[in-house]
User: Fold these one by one.
Assistant:
Number 1:
Amino acid sequence: MDDLISEFIAECREMLEALGGEIVAWEASPDDRARLDSIFRFVHTVKGNCGFFDFPRLEALSHAAEDALAEVRAGRRHADGPLVSAVLAIIDRIAEMIAALDAGEEFPAGDDSSLIQALQQGAEVPAAPVAATVGEAQSKAAAPRTIRLSVELLDRLMSGVSDMVLARNELARRLRETTGDVAIDGAFERLSSIIAEMRDAITRTRMQRIENLFVALPRMVRDLSAELGKQVLVDIEGGDVELDREMIEMIRDPLTHIIRNAVDHGIELPAERLKAGKREIGILSVSARQSGNQILIDIQDDGRGINGKKLVEKAISAGVIEKSDASDLSPREQLALIFEAGLSTAKEVTAISGRGVGMDVVRSNIERIGGIVEVDSGVGEGTRMTLRVPLTLTIIPALTVSVAGQSFAIPRSAIDEIVRANGESVSVEKVGGAGVATIRGRRVPEIALSDVLGLESGTPAQDRSLVVLRPAGGDVYALAVDRIHDHEELVVKPAAPAVMATGLYAGTTLADDGSPILLFDPAGIAQVGGIKLETHERGGRIAEAPVAAPLNETPVLLFRGLDGARRVLRLAIVDRIEEVPSAAIRSGAGQLRVQLGEAILPLAGVNGKLPDEKVRLFRLNDGHREIGYAFREVLDLSIVGKDVIPAASPGEISGVSLVSGEPAEIVDPHWLFANFASSAISSAEQLVCRLPADDPWMQNMLRPIVEAAGYRVVSDNEDVDADLAIVSAASKDESAAARTIRLRAEPDPASAKDESIYRYDRAALLMALKTASGGKR
Amino acid sequence: MSELLLIVVIAGERVALPAAAVESVVELDTLIPVPRAAPHVAGLSALRSRVLTVIDCMRSLELGATDCSDGIREAAVVELDGHHYALIVDLVEDVVEALSEPASVRGAMGQGWERVSKGMVETEEGPILMIDIAALVGGIERQAA
């Protein structure tokens, strides 16, 4: 019996959850039969089960609601506001009773007759305001078939699979030690891939659609706006985005809070809205989307917006900021003040949003799970809050580093870049005992990880690597580590309190060989290392604040060319800097070319003697093609103003300007690409020619000619659309290609109709190739 | 009264841990130190796919340090607030039955023992000190807090 009851309770809860959005949607369009049916089904199920379990009050309530809804279904009654409110009230009461049942308590005695009375036609109930969902909620397809599982069971599965991975790794080690038997290796490979697949699947079971979070919102907004006498339309999008189960729980409260704020403080009363020239009904849109390994949740209202100036005044009077600092704040920073503790713009404290404790709690909650809150607002136009949260709590992409022989992990999200301490344009100095690293002209505080941890590092300072970190809510600093190892996806678990008490670690994880690794908390390291983050804190918190560089100032890279001249290149076209042995630079096909891994790029900038051993070069990219540009050394990052003296004639140098106080030549990227990369056509626009793979003559003799004519050669079994196919005259098969050239082995044509070409007739062959390409273009 | 006790030796002294709280007895080989952690945290170790926080009981009791340099150490694995700990002990002896409720020890114990004591229990092998695992794991700091 107990089992049956708990099954009944679980079923009811699930239906109640799903119903939250349905009811409000039904209110908006009372004629929607599908919604009416699902609500009817709920009360009907409750009624049926109650009779069986002997819960008379539940039965009476659900019975009354069922009767009223049956009338509507039969078309004898119209679903008006009072009826909806009455049905809602009954469903609420049912939910309360079920919650009490679930907790094993006696539901306090009370009278339900007033609720049942309210269902009667013509009952006196104040009209309820309209709140409705539009968008996805209405077109929601039937939910996929599901079963209920306890999270505990899933966690057990998860740890079982983790154990399996470790056992596999152990087995792999043993297998490597013994002699390699191909059959065993094959079987092991198969086992490995199955385990990997299984780990993926289990990881996915932890994911949940964010819909579960959104489904309660329409109802909440409806009740809230009713209470406040406002009219709000909720627009929900992106409910199918998946998020870690735990993460959904973590953002539930912050999201609720933001929405309450938006309805309470953001959206105005209908009369005010009309006065401001807006529609009476306010729009609150909530959307979720995935961007990389982050989930972005936008909450946007079209209400009165946040007044940044008022916020600043408030902040000054509350002592949050100094008056002298206030004038330096950018509009974004002004708005970000909303997240400071003890600040609320509402004049009166309301029951809904409470007093100024709120947004600071929202921010700290989101930051605790590695997320960011941003705010954007225009007075009179509305407010947009964006929550950026990582996809999952448990699997974190991390960089493993080591110091004094011990490995640690650093969350990758906090890493800005990694440089060598002895690399070019990097220097590390000591200023009054404190480390200062200068990286391409930018000074950042530097600390050695070995000092923070109190370990003896055997690596001399100049051989270390600097990891430039930007902790959540802080400014950058450089952390010197002995060695950088690898990027890994780590399953992170919370560490014991005694370990967390150090403030340095965010958790523990297991490496592939099964040994534990500590994951650092970048903000904690900064704190323990004594780095002051406060000074730039406010600015640093604003993620991706676009640095609005004036349009006439272009960021450039100042460098010294091989001939010793000071030159600048626009930073945007420099992909990266490479160092190659001078042997990788060769003259080929009338041009200097450099080999970079698999690619061969045209090389520019060689206007002086090439260095003997290593050549440094910029990899330039115009979006389609790449070229290399050799140089001697990078001097600085700088800005070129508008005072450019243009060159007399077009060439590699487009002009001269003052950069960092001295004249420098400005390299013209357009000229570079026009002159160096014109022949290096990228594969996207290349014509494709199909050659039979099994014909040695075609492959050995013909292929070079075809390639020289600008074609990309594919074999006849590759599944590519070919612009041209070359086959021998004897071949019967009609290749799927726009054009076909037939080649014959004999000088004379077999007949007058024969349009094939003698295979050593170079002129005719080239002409045919050219015609084919001309026909295409 | 039939609570089972696990008799272990810490710092040369035979003491009892409530057997129900001990998940298993393991031999630790690798130990990953946790820099900057409290001194009684000897490091981390892995038991299957779980991370164990290894507690040096001698340090927790302020009775010196266990010499972990010689490799394999015996440890009792316990769970506390969802975290797993391995308590390094000199030796794990036996499981015995408690014959009485813990009674307070009226004689003067060492300060460290005083802190982790849950009282004295009678067993067939005579009276033995019962250890409060949470206090042992908490170490010196928690006492101060």
Number 2:
Amino acid sequence: MFGVLYAGAVLLALLLETSPLLFTVGSGARLDLILLIVVYISLFWGGERAFVLGFVAGLCQDALSSEVLGLQALSKSVVAFMVQALCRNVQVQSLIAQVLFTGMAVMVDTAVRYLVLLVFQLQTLAVGMVLSTVSRQMLGSLLLAPVLYRALQTLVQKGHIRQEKGQRHGTL
Amino acid sequence: MASASCDGRYVTVGPEMMKARTERWKPIAVFLCLILLALSLTTLKTRVVPHISLVESLALSVVLPVQHLMVRVARQVRGVWYGYLNLVQVRQENVRLQQQVEALQGQLAHYHEAYFQQQRLRELLGFRALEFPRALVAEVVGLDSSAWAEVVTINKGSRAGLRKDVPVATHHGLVGRTIEIAPNYASVLLITDRRSAVDALIQRNRARGIVVGKSRRLCELRYVDLHVDIQVGDTIVASGLGEVYPKGLLIGTVAAVHRQPQGLFHEIEVQPAVDLAKLEEVLVLGP
């Protein structure tokens, strides 16, 4: 059941992210919905499953991108690992915690991608352009994240999906 | 089971302790494996595989048909809205348009005459007309999932005879070139993407440079000598070198010129001729 919810959420996120009806090319105001799903799984489910699912979601995003394969998979795995490691002793139900972790995730995701492009000597955006893009993305993500997490958590509760032993019982 | 402690003595480590240690290190081991896998994929894609991979092909075949359907439905709904429901002020608009049609008909006759004259002159001088008899019309059905990339997906692929590095344009000018081809879809790298470079000419004085994508729907004309006279509004066209983009295809106009006191070249901002934010249909030139 969790697998179905995860696959559905990732597919929907990919459809929305790549839709020319919602976003335009080069506007710099694109939301990374996959990133929000990865943060949700890391915050509310945790465990190694979080970064494996983060990796898979990133790989799906890579498949629909013209960037090098593995770039988003790498950045999403790192984000999942960091969020999962840092939120162990945090009340993830708190709105402030959710907003802080989402903001951190946007920055880590951007930094990892930028670093990999630099290391592989691939063409990157100018630093000013990256900062402008990340600030817009962060603003949108911070506004959307609590709503999305609540929606996903409600679906989990309605679908009677049980969190396994050792995982956080995240209820909003 | 025994292992050495820090002071050289041997201590017994039971299966429970081993299990606890494994549990502690398991997440880090899984994480490192994933990082290695991602880096291997990145290296593989950068160095070895220029073509579309199995994962990409699979994702395209799952997501893009749904995306295509969504775009079609949305366009039909929009058509119904504009065609039937949004009829406010249509009467006034109709009167205004009729007056405009009369004015434009006069201008059209003038342009027809100029067009025929230009055709005759072109044949006379032996120039090859800029025609693309094998051009294909394609619809934009998706965007790149990365916010940093300026790439769109079109609904024509290898089954329609498309291949890599084919120029894509609209009647306004150059849009980009195909970079990844799936059976029914293709990705088009726009000229504003940071990875795009087009050899170009300034139409007025034939000075050469390279139009490089700057993102956010802007380009930059690089390597134009400081001694060349450049003005805002100058037209930039493809030079035809590199054998990807046809010579004379309109790229855009000079939007700003930043003169550098030190340095060898001008810093020129170029506004693309095509409004890339509103791309709906494109023309794939000579697949």
Number 3:
Amino acid sequence: LIKEASTVVKEKIARWFEVDNSAFIYPITASKGEQNLFKLSAELTEEVDPELLSLALSDIMPRFPSFNVKLGRSFFSYIFEENFEKPLVFTESDVIMRMIDFKENNGFLFRTTYFRHIISLEFFHVLTDGAGGLEFLKGLLLRYLQLKGYPVNGENIIPEYNSPPLAEESEDSFSAYYRRYKIKDLNLKSVTGSQGQSFILNGMPFDTEGTGIINFQTDVREILRQAKQYGATLTAYLTGLLMYSIYRVKVMGMPQKKLIQIFMPINLRKIFPSVTLRNFTFMTKVSAKIVEKQELKDFVDIASEALKSGVSKDKLQRSISAVCQAEKNFFIRIAPLALKYVVIKAITAIMVSRSGQTATLTSPGIIPMPESLKPYVAHINMFLFPGRSTRLTVSALTYNNELSCTFCRRFMDTEVEKFFIRYLSVNGAEVRVSGNFRELATKNTAGMEPV
Amino acid sequence: MTKCDFCGILIRGDAEYCPLCHEKIVKGTDFPLYPPNTVNNKSRTGFNRIFWFLYVLALAVCFVVNRLATSGPEWWLLAGAFMLYVPLLIRNTIMSKIDTARKIFNQIVYVALILILVRLVLGSESTGWILDYVLPILLGASSLFYGCMVAFGVKKFHTYIIYELGIIVFGAIPILLYLFKVITELIPSLVSAMASFAVLLSNVFFVSKEMREEIKKKFHM
């Protein structure tokens, strides 16, 4: 039987498709020390059964063909190739968002892990963005709970594992919405990055590899009430508060020319209708000059204004075209991948050294979930890898009226998080906090008690 | 859930300390939310630093000895290349997780570059045979090797085909060097070019459906 099965696999010709325009950069910027990863996790109400999780994962792969791939290379570009291997389930490592070893992971560009009652998916960003990853996580949760024997169904929110996959879910929406513009009309400044040099958060790095995590959960209605006092949306309020926290903890009293710059991925599906599960986000930024005396309201106003202008449809249309236009240029297309690799690597290194980012904040918004699943899924959390250019990331999402906000950092210092969370708490929010205490897992302090 | 009186927040999981201020709290009785931290000191940075320190030091010693003690070819360049080749062989080939096809390709390129360097440093009088015989034989044999791997359908033939095409192109280099009079012996260069051409021709005539798809994929623009 095994022999027969392997013959069938050998005869199959792997389907393949090009890596999308916006994701092309991720394999190039990945290095031995870091990979652009994000993680989505669901806390269940009971301990996870790894065997059923593995079964559920295998069951849903045919429904999500854009996830059932490995990364390949052609002479000119990166490609996704259909993966005939079995997706694996791992126990969670204490190194959150540890680099994915593709060989160990059977070539898959995402890793499935479990720990006690938590199921997690860690995605290499080349594969999908937060919105696509959440759809995959929900599909996995539905099938897992079905295998557990619970009376759950997708309720038109999550596709059933045995339903046919939709072609539109695998489309490159950047190409679908590409319009040709003259170079002077393209929103090139939005693609090339910052408005000035960013204030970079520094701190003592961890002695050992790993990411420091602090997560808090609270009633979203309380945070909305606080945001309303400033006439801001939830995202603008959180962004403003993050900038204010950085200002108060790291900058105040030290005037400088650098900007506090927060990079924010915008889910383009909300503006350009698309059901793609591949990358369809665009980075916008909120920049604030550092002046002598600033209050939270100043930062919230800056964030509100930047988010309003940053998501104008015309501006984003030009940004989409700017991303695609270079890729569609004949001479760039015929350049060998090795050459593109060297040039893009050099450009990104220069851009990072010249500007960088103070922090990144991502906010996928409200996560819809079928009512029948809610009794079994207690919390959903998101984590974004902090890289060399962004040493602090914040991910905020709302599930079942609960705001879950996760800070991921590359250094020991937790002052920004402390100020941010205490501010919400002092103003009336009941926050529930957890952390992975990575700062205690260092050579010098391992086994010691914190002071 | 327990509470931190300093921060005024509730703490989830089984933490013994407040994640924000690190004050001791009553240990939580909930499920742990993160795996326990381990101290992983496995780092290559230290090894790399030692290697590069020793490499630059050894290279500097070779350079000084070469210049002060001997008058002749710049053999310190060859010493530098060999000292670099050994770790490349160990890390990028023997211990690397890349596929075998690429490992072999990398080795062919490294060896070819070293041969060219030896010829450039020691001059054509004593080492002319390197470009005249060794390089063409190496490239011709490599073409045939990759051709056989593809033709006999090794398990992962598709990983070999891109390198096979690369080696076919390299196979033509000796004959070009002959035309530019860098190489003086025609026969080995001609054999290398013919071997590459034969492998290319076999791909055209005996190409399977899978291989055609693979070529289409690899050269898709």
